């Protein structure tokens, strides 16, 4: 009976999250297509022109847009969103350094809020779903919370949104959770933000839409890709040892 009730609660949570996503996406698309046509988004000149407009607007309202990005990221993470699109957009808009900083702040705060929600409202459900599979982590977290949390985030043994709530099983201190998340996701966020910045540089330097070969050969694109594969290799060896 208890298991059935938990499964029902899990289903209700999924339905609620799905409805929220659908409403947000629908409203966003409705507002966007009120002003623009589909053809606009496939027009390279249109993209370049609006990039310049947005760059000018950003420079005049840098604090407002920065806070808006952080707030949007927090909401996105609480709604079980992934970190990759946030880092990519942040790097595209703000550059690799400042974009990385904003993405890290938003992702870390959002993840921490979701962790608190998991601790106080979803702990029994999380335990029933994940404990048997991940109970081997319990002893590791008890020995060195912060270090293990950093490694846990670096290697990403589960998708980002599951990694946000899974540590609720082990009662990690919020400070260690936040710092572990912040430090652990920094390499991947920086690489993806650099890739986003590379696309921005590509759009600003090319008069015509580049082909795939030109995109890959662009330095601001292939350097982050090399970094990404290096990170994957490093993560592979860390994961085997961990």
Features:
242 residues; mainly alpha
The topology string of helices and strands comes to HHHHHHHHHHHHHH
Beta-strand percent range: under 5%
Low-confidence stretches: 38-42
Structural class: mainly alpha
Number of strands: 0
The N- and C-terminal alpha carbons lie at a distance of 37 Å
The global form is globular
User: What integer value in Å does the Rg equal?
Assistant: 20 Å
Average the pLDDT over all residues and give the rounded result: 79
How would you characterize the largest beta sheet?
none
Number of domains as seen in the coordinates = 2
Contiguous helical run count: 14
Question: Approximately how much helix is present in the residues?
Answer: over 70%
């Amino acid at each position: 009976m208890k298991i059935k009730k938990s499964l029902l609660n899990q289903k209700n949570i999924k339905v609620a999250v799905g409805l929220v996503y659908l409403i947000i996406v629908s409203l966003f698309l409705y507002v966007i297509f009120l002003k623009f046509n589909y053809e606009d988004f496939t027009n390279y000149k249109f993209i370049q022109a609006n990039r310049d407009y947005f760059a000018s607007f950003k420079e005049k309202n840098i604090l407002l847009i920065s806070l808006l990005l952080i707030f949007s990221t927090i909401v996105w993470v609480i709604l079980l969103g992934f970190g990759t699109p946030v880092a990519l957009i942040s790097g595209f808009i703000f550059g690799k350094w400042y974009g990385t900083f904003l993405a890290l702040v938003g992702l870390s705060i959002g993840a921490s809020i979701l962790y608190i929600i998991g601790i106080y409202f979803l702990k029994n459900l999380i335990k029933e779903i994940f404990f048997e599979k991940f109970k081997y982590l319990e002893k590791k977290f008890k020995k060195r919370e912060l270090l293990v949390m950093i490694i846990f985030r670096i290697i990403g043994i589960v998708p980002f949104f599951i990694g946000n709530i899974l540590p609720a099983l082990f009662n990690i201190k919020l400070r260690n959770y936040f710092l572990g998340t912040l430090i652990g996701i920094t390499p991947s966020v920086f690489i993806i933000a650099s890739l986003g910045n590379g696309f921005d540089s590509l759009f600003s330097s090319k008069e015509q839409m580049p082909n795939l070969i030109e995109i890959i050969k662009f330095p601001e694109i292939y350097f982050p890709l090399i970094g990404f594969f290096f990170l994957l290799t490093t993560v592979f060896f860390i994961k085997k040892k961990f």
